[in-house]
Write a structure and sequence with these properties.
The protein has about 100 residues and is mostly beta strands. It has one domain: Outer membrane efflux proteins (OEP) (Single Sheet), CATH 2.20.200. The chain is built from one helix and six strands. A four-stranded antiparallel sheet has the order 1-4-5-6, with no helix packed on it. A two-stranded antiparallel ribbon has the order 2-3. The longest helix is centred in the last third of the chain and has 4 residues, at about 75-80. The chain is elongated, with a radius of gyration of 20 Å. The protein starts with 6 loop residues before the first strand and ends with a strand.
């Protein structure tokens, strides 16, 4: 959305789910993996002069699994598993078009 001729913003999101109809064995028990992901993001961009964009963006994502999975950050240390994971991402943008 253009708030003024030089300031604009966007908000967007997505949701996805995968159902495989296949199970994985965990401790001898068949369980569905079936991941789901939610993503929500927003940005604000200022264009002080033609061809120059200065902006910030924030993104949140959540992934859920049908079973517990190894935690990539801590599994090697303590064997930790997780059922869901959240992440925040931020970005500064400076773009010049000629």
């Amino acid at each position: 959305h253009y708030w003024t001729p030089t300031i604009r913003s966007d908000i967007y999101g997505s949701y996805s789910a995968l159902q495989t109809n296949d199970a994985i064995l965990i401790n001898g028990v068949a369980r569905d993996f079936d991941p789901k992901e939610l993503l929500v993001a927003a940005n604000l961009v200022w264009s002080p002069v033609s061809g120059l964009d200065l902006g910030v963006e924030v993104l949140y994502s959540r992934t859920e699994y049908g079973v517990r999975v190894p935690d990539a950050k801590a599994f090697a240390v303590n064997g930790r598993t997780i059922k869901s994971d959240d992440a925040w991402t931020g970005r500064l943008r400076i773009q010049r078009d000629f």
